[in-house]
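User: Can you predict the 3D structure of 6066_t:CDS:1? Sequence below.
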Amino acid sequence: MPSSNAANIIGTIFSFVSLVCLFLVNLSAPNIQSIYIMKFQYIPQWAYGDLKIVSGLYGYCEEAYNLLSECANNGIGSGFQTDPAGDVKFLLAMHPIGLIISFISTVVGLYACRHYSRSSQKEILTALAGPETKRAIF
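Assistant: Sure. Here are the predicted structure tokens for 6066_t:CDS:1:
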């Protein structure tokens, strides 16, 4: 059974991973065009190129026939068709809220890891490698 400090370290690592993932989702198109939530590509038979539309959390970008790239940043959920109730915008608004909560959780976890134990390096190695390797490492 791992100690409470080891569980705190593992929880902080998971919280930091979720922070990074939520940060990447919040940087999606139109901020960074290579990170997107949804991509639509249409290749007509009569044209020399294709039409690409990438949609992110705060807007969308469209590239027509490999010539023009235009982005629209109209707020949360602007690239999605929403119903009158606005359920999609409500769900997409959870991403920035989750980012803030994950940041607070990571900061609190780092503070607890730092002030809980003096032998933090041993605890981190034990938590990551497992209790059976404790005798071999130390």
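The chain has one domain: 4-123. Residues 4-123 form one domain.
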